[in-house]
Amino acid sequence: MRDKICSVSGKCGGCRWVDKPYQEQLQEKEKRFARLMAPYCKPEPVIGMEQPAHYRNKVHAVFGEDRRHHIISGIYEAASHRIVPVDSCYIENEKADAVIVTIRKLLPSFRIRPYNEDTGYGLFRHVLIRTAHATGQIMVVLVLASPILPSKNNFVKALRKEHPEITTIVVNVNDRGTSMVLGEREQVIYGKGYIEDVLCGKTFRISPKSFYQVNPVQTEKLYGKALEYARLSGRETVLDAYCGTGTIGIIAADRAGSVIGVELNADAVRDARINARRNGVENIRFYLNDAGKFLTDLAEQGNVDVLLMDPPRAGSDEAFLSSVIRLGPSRVVYVSCNPETLIRDIKYLKKHGYQVKRAVGVDMFPFTEALEAVCLLEKHGKK
Ligand code: SAH
């Protein structure tokens, strides 16, 4: 028997496969995906990581007190609001974990009390750390129950003395009794309020609330596959649907005639526009809209040669998919974080004239059962 990698995995529930050797995890994912895809095509071998530990670039800790009123930080026990103390986690970025421990040790000397969910007393609720793999930049988000952090400047100084690699610190105010980590209001107390990372040669801004893939090493492989499947020649009109902060579309733009991005989250669209400008990409436009509604309108008069789509876990919807049929792009590259809805959606597309040509699983979440996949569909009779 190997030593247990994680002492709290039973309580946390995040990594159900933490004790399964990595090669076995990959085999199991490949088998499951092949079974699901069997009616459509034989997937390529799953793309795993060379070094799967500590891949998560985004780390969250909740703060509270133990029975003796010592400050603790860690995770909520699965399906409860009890805090399990955690100092280091096998899948999280190690620097981020170290910053959280430092913050916990600093709090008493600043007389800052953790927030108590039951009584509503106390200030300090959560810490969210986001790290940029390629640039090493680190963002610290301190989530407080009210807007004032005592001795703010000295706190920043003390934290940066221990971790000079921190490039920005943001106070986020969450004064509601919700299970959401972040509230609406934000105040930047150090640095620019965002960090920048590089993916596939392009630079992307990450703000406290914007969506960004949590495994940067695998994201490059995922996007690489999506673009390989897209086979862009430099002339195509490309649609990046569910585009988030525009990552896939911006990476595709060099190889396309023009790119249209559509996304429902306003912050993400703002970041996408900034990201396009930041990278000098001029042949891309972003629209803030529901992807289904947007496509319904586009199907009236627009043209799309290649569709890149990356919907959330719930998958796409009928408004979207029926418009895809009317628009009739030659190729659809479907990036999916949920194989179940992927299968449902490709079934629909297959019924209406598309063929599944290629598919591959990409392991974005080692030690968990989750599987990301890319699938290429082509219109019948088109090359
Ligand atoms: N392609 C991006 C984001 C993928 S996550 C990346 O790789 O980073 C899925 C995105 O779909 C999220 O940004 C979410 O806000 C967006 N989304 C969810 N429902 C949507 C809808 N109905 N219409 C458009 N975008 C939607």
Q: Which CATH top level class of the largest domain fits?
A: Alpha Beta
User: What ligand molecules are bound, each kind once?
Assistant: S-adenosyl-L-homocysteine
Total number of helical segments?
A: 10
- Look at the helices and sheets and give the structural class: alpha/beta
Main sheet strand line-up: 1-16-17-15-14-11-12-13
User: From the coordinates shown, what is the CATH architecture of the largest domain?
Assistant: 3-Layer(aba) Sandwich
Question: Which fold name corresponds to the CATH topology of the largest domain?
Answer: Rossmann fold
Characterise the protein shown here.
The chain has helices spanning 9-12, 22-37, 94-106, 152-162, 216-230, 247-253, 266-278, 291-301, 318-327, 339-351, and strands spanning 44-47, 58-65, 71-76, 83-85, 124-131, 138-144, 166-173, 185-190, 195-199, 202-206, 237-241, 258-263, 284-288, 306-309, 331-336, 354-362, 372-379. With 383 residues, the protein is an alpha/beta fold. A hairpin with a 6-residue loop joins β3 and β4. The longest helix has 16 residues, at 22-37. It is globular. The chain binds S-adenosyl-L-homocysteine. The site of S-adenosyl-L-homocysteine has 17 residues, from α6 and β12.
